[in-house]
Amino acid sequence: MLRVGVGTELKRQYTDDIKKTVIAFANTDGGEIYIGVDDDGSILGVTDIDDIMFKLSNSIRDSICPDVSIFTSIELLKLEDMDIVKLTVERGTARPYYLCSKGIRPAGVYIRQGSATVPASESAILAMIKDSSGYSYESARSLEQELTFGKAEETFRDKGIMFDRVHMRTLKLIGEDGMYTDLALLLSDQCVHQTRFAVFQGTDKLVFKNRKELTGSIFSQMDELMELIDFYNQTRSEIRGLFRRDSRDYPEDAIREAVLNAYVHRDYSFSSPLLVSMFDDRLEIVSVGGLVKGIELEDIRLGVSVLRNEALANIFYRLKLIEAYGTGILKIENAYRGCNRKPVFEATANAFRVTLPNMNYDAPAGTDNIYYLKEEGPVYGIEPVRSDRAERIRALCREKGYIVRKDIEEAFQVSQPTAIIILKDMQTAGVLKRIGRGKNIRYICG
């Protein structure tokens, strides 16, 4: 007598939920489904055989992703002189299989537990992906398949590079199974990995001056991060006789290389965010994932490059974001050539930290010839402001009589949050004064 078990399912008649059991068997160890048999093993038989077989084959073909039909077979059996339909399902090789309408999430992925068909947990889904992908983060199937690529399309278009499905396959954003990979997830607008940016008062983490979580495509995160760092990368001026020499706190080349390296070499199999912290005396960038196994920090200094995310690095190379592999640290160190303070690189088993020193931090405080520029001259004890940006804002304010947030966004091509930061800092420094409330807020020269 037939009995319900780990690899056996009995159905009195055809129902649409049979597809869930097909998925469960394909994701576990295979099994058999008998239609026309009661739960207690009694043979009931079926009469509409052709209709049942038609519905089964259509459901398997149209409702389950990836295609599992090659691992299934349907046959007619005669038991106790009655017709029943037997559906055999083998364990699939492209697990996890899931309902196309639900995607690769617990609501769409099923496994077999004992004699029951149950939704798979996220950890079980990830284990199946690793098992069937042979595991490489970049090439593994993304749990999220409803992806959009607004920022990525813009980035590729700006560089004159095609970004259609054919080229996405070449770039390894689409796997051999026709599904988006985790690499595609990184570039998508739905990217689950974050960047956390913070500015602290002084040289420790006791007092926040600003903090922000950056989300979306890693292209969006990089752009916004560079914008934020640039805003706080002050310009210091030194007057020597009749001449003025401007120097920024951090070399722009060093910042760019440190940021690009952090995104390219980060271990995305961990969910921890990229941490970027600015202090009065330094800029720290901490990325999860230490050095690739077998590589030492001294090897990196010599220009040895072993890529954790080879496909991502290739995309950055095609976009001309990086020019050559293994030159990042050398470029950062060259940017500090002639400076007393040098960048520091630290690696642990699970993290990598780059510390860029503020080249102007050691300047004598309170002297008459070294200062942050403001209209009235040297000013101490206030939030420093970018002199070039302050002058542009003053000119715009004088021209129009007043400015609004939208004016800042358009003048500097920045996002709304960054425009708000700029306006707030300009108020703190006395450059601007806010008037009005709500939608009627205006800013006039302070």
Describe the structure.
32% of the residues lie in helices and 21% in strands. It has a six-stranded mixed sheet, covered by helices on one side. It has a four-stranded mixed sheet with strand order 1-2-5-4. The N and C termini lie far apart (90 Å). It has helices at 18-27, 49-63, 122-133, 150-158, 165-170, 182-187, 218-232, 252-265, 297-301, 310-318, 328-335, 387-400, 405-412, 416-428; strands at 8-11, 31-35, 64-65, 72-79, 82-89, 98-99, 110-113, 116-119, 195-200, 208-214, 235-240, 243-248, 274-278, 282-288, 344-347, 351-357, 370-371, 432-435, 442-445.
What is the topological layout?
Blueprint: E1 8-11, H1 18-27, E2 31-35, H2 49-63, E3 64-65, E4 72-79, E5 82-89, E6 98-99, E7 110-113, E8 116-119, H3 122-133, H4 150-158, H5 165-170, H6 182-187, E9 195-200, E10 208-214, H7 218-232, E11 235-240, E12 243-248, H8 252-265, E13 274-278, E14 282-288, H9 297-301, H10 310-318, H11 328-335, E15 344-347, E16 351-357, E17 370-371, H12 387-400, H13 405-412, H14 416-428, E18 432-435, E19 442-445
Parallel strand pairs: 1-2, 9-13
Antiparallel strand pairs: 2-5, 3-6, 4-5, 7-8, 9-10, 11-12, 11-17, 13-14, 14-16, 15-16, 18-19
Helix pairs in contact: 7-8, 8-11, 13-14
